[in-house]
Amino acid sequence: MQNTLMRDIGLAILRIAASAMMLTHGYGKLQMLINGAEFGNPIGIGSTPSLFLAVIGEFVCPILIIFGFKTRWAAIPTAITMAVAAFIAHGADPFQKKEMALLYLTIFVVIALVGPGKFSVDRR
Question: In 58-94, which ranges are continuous DSSP H helix?
């Protein structure tokens, strides 16, 4: 019982803290989308669609993950966004530039694999 409780507390801390930190990046991109600011086109679909997908991955999905609603599904777009950031947008940059995206990628892949834990709307 103690191990299960600690695991669920650890999962809650991981998903809430990582998602809250991700929101700081996503909020800026949401403001860019609202204001019509230019954004890169890392996957060749256009600037606005790329920004829209980044907002979903860095703002909308982290909110779902914080509450633990459809957590495994919500972690996938966030992980994909971080993979694009690490391997495409910062692909030619030194490791220090892509390190944060790789850390987020790892965290959200783990969340997608293990789920939200007991302290979530999903309660799994």
Answer: 61-67, 71-84
pLDDT in tens, the chain (124 residues): 678 899 999 999 999 999 999 999 999 999 999 998 889 899 999 999 999 999 999 999 999 999 999 999 999 999 999 999 999 999 899 999 999 999 999 999 999 999 998 999 987 6
- Distance between CA atoms of residues 13 and 116, nearest Å: 10
In the block, residue with structure tokens 């060749």: 44
> In the structure encoding, which two tokens stand for residue 10, read together?
């650890």
Distance CA 124, CA 120 (A): 8
pTM for the predicted model, two decimal places: 0.91
